[in-house]
Write a structure and sequence with these properties.
With about 110 residues, the protein is mainly α. Helices cover about 35% and strands about 5% of the residues. The protein is built from 4 helices and 2 strands. Strands 1-2 form a two-stranded parallel sheet. Helix 1 crosses helix 2. The two termini are about 20 Å apart.
């Protein structure tokens, strides 16, 4: 994103739509990237801001325990490498593989 001249601003998932809209406006956001579980709140916030488009990663059927390491959910190291590569491609972040192999991984 930075290579394209963009700036990212993370948001607390516990924000209300109004709080998120404030942050979006304050950051001058044009796009909102979210997950299905937060889409409704994200759309409400986007409608109160200058956001032009909302993008959703994943789908509702993908239910994950956010505090459980991927390897405890049945994903082996090869699956973790596939996930890492997909994140690298889709998000443009070179994620260290160690992040997916130990501890709680998804936040």
């Amino acid at each position: 994103m930075a290579l394209l001249g963009g700036v990212s601003s993370t948001a607390n998932p516990s924000y209300t739509a109004s709080e998120l809209a404030y942050q979006l406006n304050d950051a001058g956001a044009k796009y909102l990237l979210t997950v299905p579980q937060l889409l409704e709140r994200g759309l409400e916030a986007a409608s109160q801001s200058k956001v032009e488009s909302v993008f959703v990663f994943g789908n509702e059927s993908q239910t994950l325990n956010l505090q459980k390491p991927l390897n405890e959910m049945g994903l082996n190291s090869l699956s973790n490498i596939d996930i890492k590569n997909q994140i690298d491609i889709e998000v443009g972040i070179n994620l260290p593989i160690e992040v997916l192999l130990v501890g709680s991984n998804i936040y």
